[in-house]
User: What shape does this take?
Amino acid sequence: MKIVTISGDGIGLELIPAVQAILRPLLPHDVQITEAAAGFGAYERHGTPLPDATRAACREADAILFGAVTTPPDIAGYRSPILQLRQTLHLAANLRPVRSLPIPGTRPNVDMLIVRENTEGLYSGIEETSADGERATTLRVITGEASRRVARTALDLARTRRGHCTMIHKANVLRATDGLFRRAVREVAAEYSDVLLDELLVDTAALRLVQAPETFDVLVTTNLFGDILSDLAAAHVGGLGVAASANVGEHIGLFEPVHGSAPDIAGRGIANPTAALLAAALMLRHLALIDAAGRLETATIATLASGICTPDLGGIATTREVCAAVAARLSP
Ligand code: NAD
Ligand code: IPM
Ligand code: MN
Assistant: This one.
């Protein structure tokens, strides 16, 4: 079995090596872990944010553990390597669980799963700026195929949960694109008589997510809406420092915290490792290492419950101290 780690930039460089040290003893001895370069640091060193060697290593991996990358908005032609990986590895769905945690300030009874289409929509990368720089367009691409695929993923997962799936769109305005998305999801849902499908316009969904997050089970939506709503929902349960995600396709899975490279705290040793640890637990589950996944998740959450946490959660612990506490809970 092969795992590729991509630490990336900023706090990714602090978190992924720390998580890897915790992960190693949980893995069978024959699992190979190799680090690959991506991000702005890679761009500065190799002239590209996603070197060919990284692409090749990822294609051969069973799973990828991704830290975070910095994406400067003002370099012409620069495209975020995580978006390239999601598209080229056909990671069709981005699963973002949001669950109440035993930490102060967390809202009780939240247990939802945001299923975000991961390869198209406003993330098509098809953009144009006029010669005078006064008009710009980004193409919002929606296909029936990708919509049906993400719908199936969401509905299958709803079946294993509370049997409720909410489709989120803006078909009243984006009539062509979200009209197609909505038809495709409804078409697939007709095969799932055991799942209740309802729908919300994205603005109303944002309000409901703030007011009554406990009413959601599975949410299925297009790429940009899923990006925004998953940060919003994470605010109920501790914020970005605890939010993990799984990018899944046919075989390879890419697992990452929802957060970015956090340049405001990078290099200070205080980044919350919880999101990266929970992403690693999602990866273990994907690799069918179910027992190890459960142990890592339990140790991570128990550490938070014991009050050992980083400043974003109101604590005084460093990344290293949180990781040491998790490792101690895992050692026999
Ligand atoms: P961010 O997620 O990096 O940070 C947002 C806020 O959350 C910051 O105040 C940060 O300190 C805090 N935060 C994030 N993760 C934390 C953690 N583990 N522990 C404690 N606090 C944490 O978002 P941003 O500041 O908007 O973006 C910074 C850079 O990251 C940008 O270049 C952006 O493009 C990139 N980005 C990358 C990814 C990714 O690699 N998947 C995701 C989002 C943003
Ligand atoms: C995320 C991030 C990415 C996204 C960025 C870094 C391209 O915000 O994983 O949520 O928008 O998908
Ligand atoms: Mn995001």
About this structure: DSSP finds eleven helices and twelve strands in the chain. The chain has a mean pLDDT of 97.
